[in-house]
Amino acid sequence: MNLEVFLIVAAALFCVGLFGALTQQSIVMLMMGLELMLGGVILAAGAAWHYIAPATADGQVLVVVAITAMAVEMAIGFAVVTALFRSREVDMTDMAAELRE
Amino acid sequence: MTTAAFWILAVLAVAGGVMVFRFDSMARATFSLLTALLCVGGELIVLGLEYLGIVTVLMMTIEMAIMAVFMIMFMMNPAGLMPMTMVHNKRGAAALCVTAFVLLVAGILLAPWPRRRGRAPADPTTDLGMALMGPQMLTMMTLGMALFATIVATVVLATRRGRYERYGDDLRATRPDDPVRGGVGR
Amino acid sequence: MDLRNRLGRVALDRPAVLLVTAAGATRERLAVEAELARRRWPRASGPAAADLVAFAGAPAPAGDDDWAERLWNGVPAPKARVRVRDPEHAAHALEHGRMALLVGAGTQGRQEQREPAGHERHDADGEHPPQHDGHTASGRSEHDGHTTSGPSEHDGHGHDAHQDHGGSHAGTDQGHHGHGGSHPGTDHDHHGHHMGGAILGLPMAERADDRDGLRLDRLHVPLGPALPDWPAGLVVRTELQGDVVQRASVEALVPPRSSRPAFWSEPWLRSAAGAPVTVDEAARRRCAAHLDSVGRFLAVAGWRDPAAVARRARDQVLGGASVADLRSGLRTLTRRVRRSWTLRWLTSGVGVLSSTQAQRYGVTGPALLADGDAYDRLLVWLEEIDRAVDACDDRSPLASHALNGPRGRIAPEAPASRTLVDVLPVLLEGTEFACARLVVASLDPDLDELAPQHARGGHAHG
Amino acid sequence: MAETAPLWAAVVLPVALVLVAWAAASVDARSAGLGRAVLRLLVQQRRLTRAADVLLVRVGTTLLPVAAVLAAVVLPLGFRSVSDLPDGIVWFNAMEALAWAAVWLTGWGPNSALSLIGGYRFLAQGLAYELPHMLAITTAALGAESLRVGALVDAQAGLWFAVWMPVAFGVYLLSALAMAFWGPFDQPVGTDVAGGAASELAGVDRLLFLGGRWLLFVVAAAFSVPLFLGGGQGPFLPAWAWTVLKTAAVLGLLMWARRRVPTVRMERYVELAWVVLTPLAVAQALVVAVVVLGR
């Protein structure tokens, strides 16, 4: 095992997540794509900590930031879906886009 | 041992990630995402970040469980009876993602990664705590503020009822007008 | 296989019993419950956990839905069922069920396990010996009906017919009839993934306004008639969003025309008809009726210990225990229930029925007296229990005017339970599932009272 | 003081847990009917509901006992645990959270309304108890200045944490009941929903699920011993005996409490947990932090 292998796995997760985030119409599914991308980021940060600079805690802090970002993204995402749903009964990105018109 | 663990977790993580968008059932999709993220947590443990790995497992389990509820709330699809075709521009996205992946891999393989400096501390958890409460204090405070702002923002966004709805226009009601009575006897 | 069979025999020696009470079969239910308590057989909370299904009375289908048959299909093998048509035959029938299970366990092989439909029929063969059935003729016809229904189950979904009926354990499909095409909003068509109608025969959810201002999916779930601790014969058709009851309508499975007066209001009905009834008889019946309701309420509230005590006390009261014995036991029970601040914390504010509202619906009895929530109604029951115990040795004749039964004024043409059933939908709307259960249990309508009565002196039986 | 047990302990652990759970369950049932009940589930056929997601049900029912055993890995008997992880407390919490997923999956899978309600209820319960629960175990960790369970036990050589962190201890006991959805917190499998999440389970599935629930209950109760009751510390008796004794006492207390209290509904408890228990737990953590700083 080395840094490259970890990063490739992280990149795979990131790209799968990106695919999901780009293609899914449902906001909830889109958020699942984002989660997966952030999972890739977490893995990359952990690998970077281990293989590049284990003596400092910067890599770990990056992981903490990514985890927090996941939590915030989830919470805000669901709040927005709830708000949209309450006002327009919309849970899909395309429909949210139509609302602008 | 660690190598085997790494590969098993890596394959499971990516497979779980792919299955998220292939399952018909929302519940399966969520829990396949959970599998993927639990494997990421496992990889962190393989890397020696036990605390962060376990915290990832803890957070993701709870997060996915709550996500499942929201999902079912907003899109009823009992056990995948109806195939979901809720995608747009699939082909373009696939092309984009494959390109991104190829570029990333090329970058990863070609980049001159620095040599490993220093060795891991005996207890990375202490290290992390010291960092967050010392040099990285600003990060920690920002995260704290962000989380606090999130709490406020989500409540504002998600609820429709404020104190005027609950306690009347002059806020004089002794007992809030809630659809369900709470447990503190207010 | 031999070991497996032997283990099966040991296990099924005390089967878990699911007691399903048909409307109008209170006597049979009480007999079976007492017998189960005596034998210390475990009670199953649903078909999945049951080995032996005991039908008290003859379950009447709700509309075109033969819920009893669906329930039976949902019980995993090895299984047996018995029908108790007569309180005196309870012990006999249960024993018979046990024997059928033991025989079934002995002959049960692996192939049979793979073919549930075949196995069911096998059980059915052994389950209705005429001698305990009370009604030989009807027992025979049921038997036939069952045999012919076997193949059709087979080509349908095997014994998996139980599935869709979350709510009642007895089929919910027909709860959805007529909803397929009636979409509330036009924007509905946007939702490609979100059509009404049915897939695989399962109804899909559709949206409707709800309590919290979100138009979420609602599920049509009928509650009853075979939920544990549920008034026999009551079916509440609910629209659930999550676990919140958004709308409810009540359907009472009216018990078959019978010559027997409703069990819990029997003394007063007899007195109204001019027969001589003593005060102690009425007091005992009232005491037992309220103990039954209290036991059910506490069981729904999840307080199993005193619920069991209440039920035991009920059987004692009906069994004619002396007043002195009863008094100390009942005082302990009522004091314990009154003193529980957690029970008060959990049940106050649930299902508030003010006396003005109650009067509007014509409610009489404890529900009117309580003038408040589920907890107040419980307190009224407890008070009446305490008072009724004191009258349990009063042999004077019951005054035949102003008759008040355990559930309210005795009026054969407008029974008190009818008003309780009528008031249910209003109280249930907007409650969460657990609260809805508490509301129903705190009113505890007795659907036996709704049975159309034969003229006195008709061909009595049982 | 903490030592790591040899490898065979990993095999013994589930067996020991099952034995304790068996003992507790038979005391609770007040009769010898337990063995028969288990046998009955063993001979009973599994059953499938229409359009059920069998995979999810199987995952859910299996995950519950697995999570309980995994959580018990950090549980010391005397001063030995199978593995005294450096982040043992977080590990315990994470494994216990797996029960959220397990119960929800079991409730969702059978495609039945009552069972789904059971699943929902457990998530509501989780949200209610988890906040004060995490603060309570954090308080104990704070008092020992370590996340290692062994260090926690060592820190209580003098004074038990239960004595000077009574609020955290109380909150922990409540959440131990809630996380095992047992006793007053059994709403997810309550009789009012005909067994809730377990309502559609039969045979081995049911045995795994309900047995897993007992295991979780025992583990949750037993974990209060190293957290607050000094683990194996005690005079005269050997350390393992003290652990067993204290665990039995906690189990007994919880089982007694269940007979006194009806089922707690989450719409009531969640407000109590967030408005009363959480601030109390924060205040307790503050007090402990000040004491630790002053040491």
Please provide the count of β strands of chain B. 0
SSE succession of chain D: EHHHEHHHHHHHH
Q: Tell me the fraction of residues in β-strands of chain D, as a range.
A: under 5%
Q: What is the radius of gyration of chain B?
A: 23 Å
Strand order of the largest sheet of chain D: 1-2
State the share of residues found in helices of chain B, binned by percent: 55-70%
Estimate the mean pLDDT confidence of chain D: 88
The rounded Rg of chain D comes to 19 Å
Low-confidence stretches of chain D: none
Order of helices and strands of chain B: HHHHHHH
Tally of individual domains of chain D: 1
Keywords (chain B): Cell membrane, Membrane, NAD, Quinone, Transmembrane, Transmembrane helix, Ubiquinone
EC number (chain B): 7.1.1.-
Main location (chain B): membrane
Family (chain B): Belongs to the complex I subunit 6 family.
Helix-strand layout with pairing:
The complex is a heterotetramer of chains A (101), B (186), C (462) and D (295).
Chain B: H1 2-20, H2 26-46, H3 50-74, H4 90-110, H5 124-133, H6 137-158, H7 163-167
Chain C: H1 2-12, E1 17-21, H2 26-39, E2 52-56, H3 67-73, E3 80-84, H4 90-107, H5 110-114, H6 116-127, H7 136-155, E4 198-199, E5 202-203, E6 206-208, E7 216-223, E8 234-241, E9 244-252, H8 266-272, H9 279-300, H10 304-319, H11 323-339, H12 341-347, H13 355-360, H14 366-370, H15 374-390, E10 404-405, E11 408-409, H16 416-428, H17 433-443
Parallel strand pairs in C: 1-2, 2-3
Antiparallel strand pairs in C: 4-5, 6-7, 7-8, 8-9, 10-11
Helix pairs in contact in C: 1-4, 4-6, 6-7, 9-10, 9-15, 9-17, 10-11, 11-15, 15-17, 16-17
Chain D: E1 3-4, H1 9-29, H2 34-43, H3 54-72, E2 80-81, H4 88-108, H5 113-144, H6 149-155, H7 161-164, H8 166-179, H9 203-228, H10 239-260, H11 266-294
Parallel strand pairs in D: 1-2
Describe this structure in words.
Chain D: Belongs to the complex I subunit 1 family. Chain D: One of its GO terms (molecular function) is NADH dehydrogenase activity. Chain D: InterPro entries: NADH_UbQ_OxRdtase_su1/FPO. The complex is a heterotetramer of chains A (101), B (186), C (462) and D (295). Chain A has one domain: Helix Hairpins. Chain A has 4 helices and no strands. In chain A, 60% of the residues are buried. Chain B is mostly helical. Chain B is 66% helix and 0% strand. In chain B, helix 1 packs antiparallel against helix 2 and helix 2 packs antiparallel against helix 3. Chain B starts with a helix and ends in a 19-residue tail after the last helix. Chain C folds into 2 domains: 161 residues, Rossmann fold, CATH 3.40.50; 185 residues, Cytochrome-c3 Hydrogenase, chain B, CATH 1.10.645. Chain C contains 17 helices and 11 strands. In chain C, helix 9 runs antiparallel to helix 15, helix 9 runs antiparallel to helix 17 and helix 10 packs antiparallel against helix 11. In chain C, a hairpin with a 2-residue loop joins strand 4 and strand 5. The longest helix of chain C has 22 residues. Chain D has 11 helices and 2 strands, in the order βαααβαααααααα. A two-stranded parallel ribbon of chain D has the order 1-2. Chain D is globular, with a radius of gyration of 19 Å. Chain D starts with a strand and ends with a helix. The model of chain D has no long low-confidence stretch (mean pLDDT 88). The chains are: A mainly alpha (101), B mainly alpha (186), C alpha+beta (462), D mainly alpha (295). Chains in contact: A-B, A-C, B-C, B-D, C-D. At the A-B interface, helix 1, helix 2 and helix 3 of A face helix 1, helix 2, helix 3, helix 4 and helix 5 of B.
